[in-house]
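Section: Multi-chain targets

For targets with more than one molecule, the full set of components is provided together so that the structure can be written out for the assembly as a whole rather than chain by chain. Components appear in the order listed by the source. The example entry contains two components.
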Amino acid sequence: MFATSRTTRLLLHVANVTVIVFILLPLVAVFFGSIQSEKALQADTRRLMPLEVTADNFVVILTKGEQKGRIFDQVTYLPDNIKSFYAAFLNSAVVAISVTFLTLLFGSLSAYTIARLRFRWTVFLMQANVVARFVPVIVLMIPLYVVMRSLGQLNSLSGVIIAETGFLLPYAILILAPYFDSIPRELEEAARIDGCSRLRAFVSVVLPLSTPALAACGVIMFIISWHELLIPLILNARPDVMTLPVVIASLVGDVHVFFNLMMAICLLALAPTVILVALLQRYIVEGLAAGAVKG
Amino acid sequence: MTTTTQTLTTSTNRRRFAREMSAGWFAFFMNVPTLLFLGLVLAWPVLYAGYLSVHRVGLAQLRRGEFPFNGWENYGRVLEDPLFWTALKNTGIFTAITVSSEVVLAVMIALLINQTSIWTSRFTRLLILLPYAIPPIANGLIWSFMYSFQFGFLNRILFTLGLISDPVNWAGNPDTALYAVTVPYVWRTLPFAIILVHAALQGIPRELYEQAAVDGAHAWRRFWHITLPLLRPVIAVILILRTAFAFAVFEEILAITQGGPGDATWVAAWYSYKITFSPPNNFGMGSASAFILALMIGVMALVYLRTIYRRVTL
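Its structure, encoded as tokens over all components, is:
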């Protein structure tokens, strides 16, 4: 629309390249860091391009420290948390998948009633959800710890799943409700005349039409849950129930872990959500816009 | 409840729906799980945080299960703690920098990727969401590698470009640390803002620009008199949401500086976390400081609800 002259086009290209470099820079850093040894990173601290290329960092993480490879040959200490990478990855997957499923299930039930049945209390519930979205985890973390401690839910995945589901439900409802609202009522009314109950009309008419919104909401819930640090950090201290972000956080301040190993585990931890974003970008964009402003 | 469905239900199909539950009960049963979760994980803990904040709660009290009431003592001790005020000041600076730069950058980049005739813009558009996929704690560690004094990637780039001759201690210098931690935060949270602005741009009718072009308005005037006024609602949304979230920044601080050097990057969330979960584990003071943070964010949430979400009849 604006771009016509040669100089404007050139300036726009320059701006684009700047933005692309800014986006990719940290990702290049994590990649370069993860394919080198500690020695190589220390050998020439002014060198940009990798001095060597090795997969040993990944091998040592993925074999639970058994196959040390060349660069960890003389290393006697490896943090236990690095060795529990698989367990953490699995825990993160269990938590994220459960939270996604539960928030979609309960969130869609609520969002539908909010969109369709305007009682005073459902309107209030929607407003409560808007406010609840602002509540930072840090405020909940202390009472959550005390509550879960008294319920015996510390050091368990179920405690984390319950906490994250409750924490994310308001956001799921904010994303889903506007979409349900946009589906024509006539479709359900037709089904109701044919003898469908309210629940049936919702399950067999509205839900199948809502797959884009469910996909958008589901992928956003999965990403946030995969990224969540504070809830599992507070509730779980035992290595066998840690999630990936907690394992990564435990490397902070460990003087024996060097950047090469940290970058490798970061790369492995960010891969699943990067793949999701690459594949489902369109849905995420729609979901983020729907959850913030009603379109 | 005067929808067509209702009318049909009561007139033509009375017998068929005779045993069906009313809309009110249906709405209630559909919301039972949500209400349970919100009660257990949000409402109750928020109230409980208020309760803990006026009681003495340390490890010994947790073990015994008795929390003696101590009135406003926790709040008093928090408000007398110079570290709390430093943390609040740092949070304010951090929030002001990140939110203002995000709004400006989001508008600029959204306009940039809206130029569909520029092929590099289409490429940028493909990449724009990438930072959203990075776990915040991983983002923090990646930037601590970027900023590392001896081995950092940023210094390597600047050496290679010949811009510096001695390594710069970006996150280790008390004068620059707080500014250094704003960059990773902006990097990670900018996609959200860009997407909102870009979505709003799609809603601006082309005719407005065509008309302005006929009238001979230049690009800058078109932006100032057409685009910006129409973007105002979405900019308000970004301002409030991002301010509230930046107020509770935690992961990047934990990974990059742990509050240091000294107290240069102590922020409000870090204060609550450290007071509570490192010795002497003062849960009461931690709750009090978290509650102060929650009150400030609660005000923003209500402003959001009243001014922006008001239009929404949902």
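The two ends of chain A are 24 Å apart (CA to CA).
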